[in-house]
Amino acid sequence: MHNLQTVVELSRWQFAATALYHFLFVPLTLGLTFLLAAMETVYVTTGRQIYKDMARFWGKLFGINFALGVATGLTMEFQFGTNWAQYSRFVGDVFGAPLAIEGLMAFFLESTFVGLMFFGWDRMSRGKHLLVTYMVALGSNLSALWILIANGFMQSPHGAVFDPATMRMQLTSFTDLMFNRDAQAKFVHTSIAGYVTAAVFVAGVSGWYMLRNRHMELAKRSFRMAVLFGVFASIGVISLGDALGFIDGRAQPAKLVAMEAMWRTRTPPAGFNVIAFPSQKQQRNLYALKIPKLLTPLVTRTMDTAIPGADAVERRAMVRMRNGIPAVLALKTLSADPTNQAALAQFTAHEKDMGYALLLERYAPDLNAATPADYKRAARDVIPNVAVIFWSFRIMVLAGFAMLFFLGLGTFCSLNNKVQDRRWLLRLAPWFIPVPYIACEAGWLVAEMGRQPWTVYGVLPTWMSASTQSVGYMVFSLTGFVLIYSAFIAVEAYLMIKFIRKGPDDAAVPALAH
Amino acid sequence: MELYAILKVIWWLLLGVLLIGLAVMVGMDMGIGAALRYFGRTDSERRAVLNMIGPHWDGNQVWFILGGGAIFAAWPTIYATAFSGLYVVMLLLLWSMIIRPLGFEYRSKLPSPSWRSLWDWGLFVSGLLPMVIFGAAIGNMLLGVPFHFDWKLDSWYTGSFISLFNPFAILCGLMSLSLALYQGSAMVMSRGEGVVRERARRLGTWAGPVALVLFTVGGLWVARLPGYVVTAGDDPAGPAMPLHKTVEMVTGAWLHNFSAHPVLWLVPALAYVSLLLGAWSLRRGWSHFAWWLGALGWIGTIGTVGAAMFPFMMPSSSDPSQSLTVWDSSSSQLTLLWMLGWTIVFVPIVLVYTSWAFWIMRGKVTPAQVEGDDHAY
Fold first, then answer.
1. Which pLDDT value is given to residue A2?
2. Does ipTM surpass 0.90 in this model?
């Protein structure tokens, strides 16, 4: 059975589930590599054994986390092809390049050197091993760069145009693709979010040790390094997040609508919704707690720029749908006869709005016969799920500031060398470990659910991006992923907790029990 | 020849390089995984075997990931059509492959014998199944798979999942498994001692010749299979649009390239010579030499398929005229050019540090060594 919308829905669930799952392991990898490198740097420059013990102990936990990051990344690389074939064919000329470069430049580096990092302690000089550790850090962060360049193209497509001769997007400028502002800001925001994650993780585990008077020397030093690293990182992540909001607000007005639950366009300066209970159906907030005049300066950095609400975004989308129809119709002619000059001219004239006509095609397969009701339904789609995005955004921001506060406190106590006496802080520290994870996942939801209904913003709608699978296959694969991934995370969490409890003194691999 | 056509051929060759890199490096690790329970009977023997490739499996696996990325970047239509069409097979491949990282990293973290035995079986599955699927996928490309496009170039796969495991594809799968076992054995022999080394020698001297027999049977079979021939309209420098050509199926057509260019017979000959020499070298105990001969064997076998099929990459058995060829399924000229630039810069760098990593970790891995190292698998 081929039921297009069900397949698309299930494919989205599968992608979201596997990507969010993968993203549970990536941030810690991104940040912990740098902390390992920092610890080892101190060891190499001062020669103090304790820092080597630190690098080796945290390296062990890094390995447990890393394995699952590698495993779940593997399936992501192929999921575009298996589940989003039309998307892959449509943008592979552009989107595939950063993914391939990621493998070539980053994964080889990270994966080759990670083996040497674990196995090479006694096989090379200290300096060389330190270099190896830095290469792992560099590799993992470069991979974040390229994957976010790819993602940046989905968020705000630059450097490519649609070519009717091949019926797909084709690259026009590699540098535009690479230096996409959205991608660059998001790379820094995301990788630094990883540093914060690692800082909170190391501080949390170290705090737990200190509370129990275990491994004091190692825990104290680890805590201090982590919070110091983390406090700078969390300042970075917040300011880059702010910049990203500014860029996104202009590139994707519909995402901004959802982040701020802004159904109507207000005369500036508009008020900021601190709390809101948005209803997508009624297109209004059932309840909202507002701070007057705050939103406009936050988003536009001015007091008098109008911010389009959902109403304006939908109206604009309807105009573009109507204008895009001739392009889609011309395309059908061109597919059969690529040399038809009249169709080519018609296509070129309406090309920029083609994506919106495709959005309409979901409800009006015969675009010539689209009714006002079809337009209205398609226009409603342009606004992503407001409640989820509004709240994910607030959770992320709140978590960000909470971590800044915690890491700031930790730094203050650490620098006074009082941290071991601040029991309340040590007690708090392990409870903070889930916070960066929640923030990272919420951030993913804002970025990717906020991109809906597009896979490539303004160009390719999600509803026509999926593979032509049967519903049965989709149920099979989604079930399989859920089962396998649940088993894996149970094993990972068990090992992680076991090795944390065990601590650094006795981290050797146990011999086989008899 | 125009630049665009030349770039397509270069990227076709580079895809071959990637597949060979994948087959040699990942194949070696998977051969070791599949035969782990044979190479090592006791836990400490198995740990020794795992740690021979412990520092390298992750780097090696990037050949597989890069393969996916490079097909996406250079051959997006193939990436989309093949991976969505072979959906269930791809999932089985991926699900079995993701056991491997955990198998390496988690297996020896707990002392329980049943825990370790479970992961050993996991490594067996994640070594055996992917190699069979790789080979079977290539076999299915030779047969052609049933798919077609609609006017928007949405691809529709119309075959069943089970039909992908036909006898010819299984033959190809077993051949690829045998070569992987050979390659893994050569590695274990190089870095193992005593009884482990002896078992690897025994397996390797069998696996190489078995692969050759399967290769021969496959070759004879292919000569009787319907191959594909472009009869009109596939311009080498034309845009990536697979709808405007005609293709016919002709029995024995996969040998046409060989009869047109007899020099191509050197490619299958390379497979024969290197694998025969390889089996002999393993008997003599020259395992390093045998490892390199195994790599040549992969070049010979994968090269033979490429030489037979060119310019076809993914023929359609249900609508041959919509088959995907080198000329109509690549990326644009600009993308191919940029990607070539990145490749020229980075592949040599990758080869240098990969070799350095193997050099640093060179030498024998013994059970005693592994017991004493707290970072070992």
1. 56
2. yes
- Bridge partners (DSSP) of residue B250 are B227
From residue B72, how far is each of A91, A101, A271, B117 by CA, in Å?
Answer: 10, 11, 45, 37
| Alpha helical stretches, state H, A252-294 | 253-260
Single pTM value for the model: 0.93
Contacts of B186 (CB under 8 A, 6+ apart): B28, B200, B204, B278, B282, B287, B288, B290, B291, B294
**Confidence at residue A512, expressed as pLDDT on a 0 to 100 scale:** 53
Count CB pairs under 8 A between chains A and B: 288
Cα–Cα distances in angstroms (integers) from residue B59 to residues A246, B36, B70, B179, B363, in the given order: 39, 20, 17, 20, 19
Determine whether the interchain pair A85/B80 forms a contact, defined as Cβ–Cβ distance below 8 Å. Answer: yes
Q: Which residues of B touch A467 (CB under 8 A)?
A: 80, 84, 87, 155
Chain B (33-52) residues lying within 8 Å, Cβ to Cβ, of chain A: 43-44, 51
For residue B59, give the nearest of B93, B24, B13, B8 by alpha carbon: B24
pLDDT of residue A306: 86
pLDDT for residue A506: 52
Rounded to whole angstroms, the Cα distance separating B63 from B20 reads 9
pLDDT band, residue B308 (cuts 50/70/90): very high
Q: At what angle do helices A126-155 and A26-46 cross, to 10 degrees?
A: 150
- Contact criterion met (CB below 8 Å) for B204 and B189: yes
Are the Cβ atoms of B91 and A477 closer than 8 angstroms? yes
Q: How far apart are CA B57 and CA B38, in angstroms?
A: 19
For every residue of B246-275, DSSP letters joined together read: EEEEEETGGGHHHHH-GGGGHHHHHHHHHH
Q: Is A408 helix (H, G, I), strand (E, B) or coil?
A: helix
Contact A123 B353 (CB under 8 A): no
Determine contact, residues A396/A441, Cβ cutoff 8 Å. no
Which residue of B104, B155, B357 is in closest CB contact with A468?
B155
> Which residues fall within 8 angstroms of residue A28, CB to CB, at 6 or more apart?
A62, A65, A194, A197, A198, A201
Instruction: Give per-residue pLDDT as tens, B81-132.
Output: 999 999 999 999 999 999 999 999 999 989 899 999 999 999 999 999 999 9
- Closest-CA distance, B109 to chain A, in angstroms, reads 6
For residue A132, with 0-12 CB atoms within 10 Å meaning exposed, 13-18 middle and 19 or more buried, which class applies?
A: buried
Q: Where are the alpha helices (DSSP H) in A84-215?
A: 85-101, 108-119, 126-155, 174-178, 181-211
CB B35 within 8 A of CB B185: yes
The H or E element that residue A4 is part of is: helix A4-22
Q: Rg (Cα) of chain B, in Å, rounded?
A: 21
DSSP bridge pairs for A271: none
For residue A430, is the peptide bond before it cis, meaning its omega torsion is within 30 degrees of 0?
Answer: no
Give A455's contacts (C-beta < 8 A, 6+ positions apart): A84, A87, A154, A461, A462, A465
Using the predicted structure, report yes or no on whether residue A318 has a pLDDT greater than 80: yes
User: Could you tell me the two tokens for B7?
Assistant: 């770039």
Nearest chain B Cα distance for residue A308, angstroms: 34
Which residue in the block uniquely carries the two structure tokens 């991006």? A465
Average pLDDT value for chain A: 91
Calpha distance B200→B205 (Å, rounded): 8
Per-residue confidence (pLDDT) for residue B286, from 0 to 100? 93
Q: Which of B51, B66, B101 sits opposite A103 (nearest CB)?
A: B66
